[in-house]
Amino acid sequence: MSHPTSPARTSQRLDEAVTGGIGDSPLRPDSALKVTGEYAYSSDLWAEDMLWGSTLRSPHPYARISSLDISEALKQPGVHAVLTHQDVPGENVYGLKVSDTPVLAEDIVRYQGEPVALVAADHPETARRALAKIVVEYEVLEPVTDPERAAHDDTLPKLHPEGNIVRYQPVVKGDPEAEAEVVVSDVYTMGMQDQAFLGPESGLAIPDEDGGVDLFLATQWLHVDQRQTAHALGLPLEKVRFTMSGVGGAFGGREDLSMQIHCCMLALHTGRPVKMVYNRLESFYGHVHRHPAKMYYEHGATKDGKLVYVKARMYFDGGAYASKTPVVVSNATSLGTGPYVVPNVRIEGWGLYTNNPPCGAMRGLGAVQPAFAYELQMDKLAAALEMDPVRLRQLNAVEEGDSLHTGQVLDSPAPVAELLARLERMPLPPGCTDLPRDVRTLPGGLSNTSHGEGVIRGVGYSVIIKNVSYAEGVDDYSTARVRLEVIGGAPVALVHTAAAEVGQGLITVHQQIARTELGVERVTIHPADTNIGDAGSSSASRQTYITGGAVREACTAVREAVFERVARRFGEDPAGLSLTGGKVVCASGAVLDLVEVLGEEPVEETREYHHLQTYKMDPVTGQSRRVHVQHAYAAHRAVVEVDTELGLVKVVQLDCAQDVGKAVNPDAVVGQIQGGSTQGLGLAVMEEIKVKDGKIRNPSFTDYLIPTILDTPPMRIEVLERADPHSPYGVRGVGEPPTISATPAVVNAIRNATGLNLTHTPVSPEQLCGS
User: Fold this and answer.
1) Longest C-alpha distance within the chain, in Å?
2) How far apart are the C-alpha atoms of 591 and 612, rounded to whole Å?
3) DSSP 3-state assignment of 14?
4) Most CB atoms closer than 10 Å: which of 172, 298, 472, 631?
């Protein structure tokens, strides 16, 4: 058959697949720029005639604004605008789940650091001086600071019209009054943790001639930021355009708005580009934190170790505004028994308003707090039973086909017992008494505080369950556009989504998917922006699953369009075609050059990907056929050394076994587990925002401690790949589970070493020394 316009055809088959696809570990395309310091973060942005924006914040946790005078600030040379709530063009309110947060405070401030006024000036120092000239008179009120009291004490002030309860959720299964032969109980508390990302909140707003505004920023969710900002600006969505800039870490702290509306307001008011960059102090006040929690837990078991019941009451301090508190309560109550089969359950969860700093999303949202409690309970139960704590966990571990306490049946692998077994097989480090010892390896050794006197070792385990993606009936989806064209004589795929790359490696994953599905080497990632459909948030360990699914769907559509073109032009059966190495391989043995198939006619397709439907929890029983679309599992073993005289802790080894379904990028998976484990270690032994009477006492990296490389121990990591049949490539979320399981493993190890009944995290020297 003659085809005068056909490309060259051969009968040679191609055996070499494109490298850098699913299961490979290609380098991040931004890696060299980041390690050499050339990468541009949002705080590096610049524009001609740019002004600097700054924010005046409340010094009080709870107060009434008596008066506000901006006249002297307006007189400051170099000041171009001073704005208050009266200057908000649209509605002076926004919120992720509940619209309850003022853009700028009107008559009441509900937390220390609440924004009250804005300044735009020609220099950041000028803006700072102008802020100092704004005169605000406050009537200071008694703050509400105890979340448990906020749940039950009707005499406390109502911080919001509907009261102080953001959400109350019970879960009841079986007989909530069941009794057991062996019972253990305790009260567990968790401090407020900060996301501690190194790149501060920042953005650059540029007004447009059409009356709209373009904002270049670091965020986790472009479209939800766009919707809230447009509402506050009183503009249609198409006139509020957001583009992702370089993000220096996130961990949930960028899901809520910070400077987005403020920066756009100043730009629209002045008619000039405005840049805002928080310093570290302002960052502590300007973003949400992890919810502190108080949790009452009781476990009952048979004398043989089978769990009979779990009872729990959990209080989550949401601070002044709702943010993700409703989701925290949902996750905590639906996961509150851990990865165990429990026939009888009664759990109650409250999310509360207080005048403490606002709390919202942070890695492991809502699962971190109960996991700390139930895993310390499992060790306490094992001690009461005189049973090995690993055996106790394996005896009660869920498996595929089991039901959780919400009634949801686990319809994919749940290798909980296997994860624990793999940890046990890993070799332990040499004993702490083995000599000679380098004093630098001892707790506090770098300060030469010990030569081994009073140093004891402990080992602790934990295993957890974590939901992946959005839940309770949310239609969770993402959008992707893929274009296949010829550039520079080679086929190139262009992938465009609004998904936020916040350091988790998503851009690499998108390239891997496109290479795998389209068989091309060159893949370009379009900057994420709001010119394409929503991709949801880079949170809940969902992006590889959901946006990865959208990219795969779009690639599949592009591939099918290419095959249809080949079928029309060359009469080949589309069912017998494949793409590999930049070629179209036919079942007949012919090989077509993709460059010539495409020619000057690119193929472009846009697709949405939606996961399986989920359902709300019953407001009375908490039951639901499917609360969560997917669950992930991780286990840790921690080895610690404790200086009992000084109260110092050194984590000697922190090993992890985790099921990831499919390791799309094995090196990146290990990196995520290492990073998550380190963040969980920080929560176990050092990270806590100290809040007293509603005020933050340590808003700096001098006083808020995070693990450094000297605190990070060796980690053995085993990755299981038990595919989820419902997800693209069988993937499970990776980033959050290790953070959740690391904390209780470390604290259990400290308890094992000292014999102390430690119930608060982070563990402080005072707790260990009894002072």
Assistant:
1) 91
2) 38
3) coil
4) 631
* CA angle at 360 for the pair 358 and 364, rounded to the nearest 5°: 145
Greater confidence, 66 or 8?
Answer: 66
CB atoms within 10 A of CB 117: 23
| Spatial distance between the Cα atoms of 542 and 287, rounded to a whole number of angstroms | 22
**380 within 8 A of 185, measured Cβ to Cβ:** no
The DSSP bridge partners found for residue 119 are: 54, 82
DSSP helix, strand, coil percent of the chain (3-state; round to 5): 25, 25, 45
- In angstroms, rounded to a whole number, what is the distance separating the alpha carbons of residues 279 and 200? 7
Q: Which two tokens stand for residue 97?
A: 């789940």
Q: What DSSP designation does 651 have?
A: E
pLDDT in tens, 685-700: 999 999 999 999 999 9
User: What phi and psi, each to the nearest 5 degrees, are found at residue 716?
Assistant: -95, 130
Give the pLDDT score at 441: 86
* 137-181 confidence digits (pLDDT tens): 999 999 999 999 999 999 999 999 999 999 999 999 999 899 999
pLDDT of 9 above 80? no
Sign of the Cα torsion 99, 101, 103, 104 reads positive
- Model confidence band, residue 433 (pLDDT cutoffs 50, 70, 90): low
Q: Is 388 exposed, middle or buried (0-12, 13-18, 19+ CB in 10 A)?
A: middle
**CA-to-CA distance for 669 and 672, rounded, in angstroms?**
5
448-472 pLDDT, tens digit each:
888 888 899 999 999 999 999 999 9
Characterize the bridge pairing of strands 213-217 and 79-83. unpaired
**DSSP-H helix ranges across 577-718:** 594-598, 666-685
What is the Cα–Cα distance from 634 to 106, expressed in whole angstroms?
46
- Cis peptide upstream of residue 430 (ω within 30 degrees of 0): no
For residues 280, 281, 283, 288, the Cα torsion angle rounded to the nearest 10 degrees is: 140
Task: Give dist(CA 298, CA 176) in Å, integer.
Answer: 12
Give the C-alpha separation, 192 to 287, whole Å: 13
Q: What is the pLDDT of residue 1?
A: 31
The partner residues of 340 in beta bridges, in order of sequence, read 397
Q: Does residue 297 contact residue 185 with C-beta atoms inside 8 Å?
A: yes
How far is the C-alpha of 384 from the C-alpha of 303, rounded, in Å?
A: 9
- Token reading at 618: 């019953």
Beta-bridged to residue 115, according to DSSP, are 57
> Cβ of 45: how many Cβ atoms within 10 Å?
20
Q: Which of 464, 383, 369, 381 is nearest to 423 (CA)?
A: 464
The β-bridge relationship of strands 591-593 and 455-471 is unpaired
Closest CA to 349 of 285, 273, 296: 296
Report d(CA 496, CA 482) in Å as an integer: 6
pLDDT value at residue 7: 36
* CA distances from residue 38 to 230, 255, 474 in whole angstroms, order as listed: 33, 26, 39
pTM over 0.85: yes
pLDDT higher than threshold 70 for residue 597: yes
Tokens of 224: 């939800």
- In this structure, are residues 666 and 23 in contact, taking their beta carbons and an 8 Å threshold? yes
DSSP string, 426-460: SPPPPPTT-SS--GGGSTTGGGT--SSTTEEEEEE
CA-atom Rg of the chain in angstroms:
28
Strands 603-610 and 628-643: unpaired
Q: Note whether 52 and 124 are within 8 A (CB).
A: yes
